[in-house]
Amino acid sequence: MAKEPARVLVTGAAGQIGYALVPMIARGVMLGPDQPVILHMLDIPPAAEALNGVKMELVDAAFPLLKGVVATTDVVEACTGVNIAVMVGGFPRKEGMERKDVMSKNVSIYKSQASALEKHAAANCKVLVVANPANTNALILKEFAPSIPEKNITCLTRLDHNRALGQISERLNVQVSDVKNVIIWGNHSSTQYPDVNHATVKTPAGEKPVRELVKDDAWLNAEFITTVQQRGAAIIKARKLSSALSAASSACDHIHDWVLGTPEGTWVSMGVYSDGSYNVPAGLIYSFPVTCQNGEWKIVQAFMDDYNCFMASFCDSGLSIDEFSRKKLDLTADELSEEKALAYSCLT
Ligand SMILES: NC(=O)C1=CN([C@@H]2O[C@H](COP(=O)(O)OP(=O)(O)OC[C@H]3O[C@@H](n4cnc5c(N)ncnc54)[C@H](O)[C@@H]3O)[C@@H](O)[C@H]2O)C=CC1
Ligand SMILES: O=C([O-])CC(=O)C(=O)O
């Protein structure tokens, strides 16, 4: 029997990520080729005409899975009955701007949209915040939508995760689909820590650790990390616009794996509400390695082979974290704590 359509909200749908994202959703990239969708697109009144143009193009593209389009500048209409909310609308960082510069503008947007989602979205709506500062916008959304379970509110660090996979694949000249289990820890900002200590590559001789294949710890501990951390800025420099197609594609990956599950033996990075795992302060939205099953994510806690379980017992908990990594996990947590304080100061 055909599935009921899922209602998917995209805020900021007239913007450049929105323009890349809505056709992917309508094609089934996000929720699968057998899941019909009704798109809810929200933007602000100055973008209403452009938003209507996007709606016209969606009609023109005749997507078989697309069962309806709501294009509106009314936040209540946009949020009503949605099962998935992808929050892209916001004030983007421009060349030379730090994320903190855009904090106060986004705090007020996320406060009001949180209330609309809380009152009007479907029960168990899953929320992905893309707009920067993504982790802190998600935290504000969580604070102002107290009846939405905290496990349903996440932010996008899958783009950073995919960037890390891409860098390793380029360096080793292997298929990106053969690289797995990198980790993005922390903030979607230049303090994030792209960690390859548990990442592997599929080879004809079995799965091999990335470190063993790259054979260049100096590169992995320095240039690789900064390349991933600074990739957003490099795209802005090259395009004079921030990443859009890769952001849209990664947002689809995030929701796809959350709803439909991660493959056996594979984890992905998601910004989720910290429960204190890995000694990350509870109450931050922090990017962790997660596996997903039955529509729920779970922070990866432990390696399954004996050696690493043994090693993990000497560390904080879960995957073994060396001293180099520990400092980087703490640094990005400190930045998130500062962002949280700044965001709260914008509320008063
Ligand atoms: N987490 C991540 O990995 C990434 C995050 N981003 C962030 O995503 C956001 C969107 O980027 P772009 O699409 O390039 O920006 P954009 O400026 O092209 O589009 C943003 C859209 O949001 C709309 N908007 C503004 N306020 C709104 C509101 N209150 N409600 C609904 N819509 C509103 C604007 O009118 C515009 O159409 C930015 O904050 C950007 O920094 C971008 C790339 C990656
Ligand atoms: O830096 C930005 O504003 C865009 C962004 O988040 C990214 O490309 O990762």
Automatic annotation (TrEMBL):
<comment type="similarity">
    <text>Belongs to the LDH/MDH superfamily. MDH type 2 family.</text>
</comment>
<dbReference type="GO" id="GO:0006108">
    <property type="term" value="P:malate metabolic process"/>
</dbReference>
<feature type="binding site">
    <location>
        <position position="99"/>
    </location>
    <ligand>
        <name>substrate</name>
    </ligand>
</feature>
<dbReference type="Pfam" id="PF02866">
    <property type="entry name" value="Ldh_1_C"/>
</dbReference>
<dbReference type="InterPro" id="IPR015955">
    <property type="entry name" value="Lactate_DH/Glyco_Ohase_4_C"/>
</dbReference>
<feature type="domain" description="Lactate/malate dehydrogenase C-terminal">
    <location>
        <begin position="157"/>
        <end position="340"/>
    </location>
</feature>
<dbReference type="InterPro" id="IPR010945">
    <property type="entry name" value="Malate_DH_type2"/>
</dbReference>
<dbReference type="GO" id="GO:0006099">
    <property type="term" value="P:tricarboxylic acid cycle"/>
</dbReference>
<feature type="binding site">
    <location>
        <begin position="12"/>
        <end position="18"/>
    </location>
    <ligand>
        <name>NAD(+)</name>
    </ligand>
</feature>
<feature type="binding site">
    <location>
        <begin position="130"/>
        <end position="132"/>
    </location>
    <ligand>
        <name>NAD(+)</name>
    </ligand>
</feature>
<dbReference type="InterPro" id="IPR001252">
    <property type="entry name" value="Malate_DH_AS"/>
</dbReference>
<feature type="binding site">
    <location>
        <position position="106"/>
    </location>
    <ligand>
        <name>NAD(+)</name>
    </ligand>
</feature>
<keyword id="KW-0520">NAD</keyword>
<feature type="binding site">
    <location>
        <position position="163"/>
    </location>
    <ligand>
        <name>substrate</name>
    </ligand>
</feature>
<protein>
    <recommendedName>
        <fullName>Malate dehydrogenase</fullName>
        <ecNumber>1.1.1.37</ecNumber>
    </recommendedName>
</protein>
<keyword id="KW-0560">Oxidoreductase</keyword>
<dbReference type="Pfam" id="PF00056">
    <property type="entry name" value="Ldh_1_N"/>
</dbReference>
<dbReference type="InterPro" id="IPR011274">
    <property type="entry name" value="Malate_DH_NAD-dep_euk"/>
</dbReference>
<dbReference type="InterPro" id="IPR001236">
    <property type="entry name" value="Lactate/malate_DH_N"/>
</dbReference>
<feature type="binding site">
    <location>
        <position position="43"/>
    </location>
    <ligand>
        <name>NAD(+)</name>
    </ligand>
</feature>
<feature type="binding site">
    <location>
        <position position="93"/>
    </location>
    <ligand>
        <name>substrate</name>
    </ligand>
</feature>
<dbReference type="GO" id="GO:0030060">
    <property type="term" value="F:L-malate dehydrogenase (NAD+) activity"/>
</dbReference>
<feature type="active site" description="Proton acceptor">
    <location>
        <position position="188"/>
    </location>
</feature>
<feature type="binding site">
    <location>
        <position position="132"/>
    </location>
    <ligand>
        <name>substrate</name>
    </ligand>
</feature>
<dbReference type="InterPro" id="IPR036291">
    <property type="entry name" value="NAD(P)-bd_dom_sf"/>
</dbReference>
<dbReference type="InterPro" id="IPR001557">
    <property type="entry name" value="L-lactate/malate_DH"/>
</dbReference>
<keyword id="KW-0816">Tricarboxylic acid cycle</keyword>
<dbReference type="InterPro" id="IPR022383">
    <property type="entry name" value="Lactate/malate_DH_C"/>
</dbReference>
<feature type="domain" description="Lactate/malate dehydrogenase N-terminal">
    <location>
        <begin position="7"/>
        <end position="153"/>
    </location>
</feature>
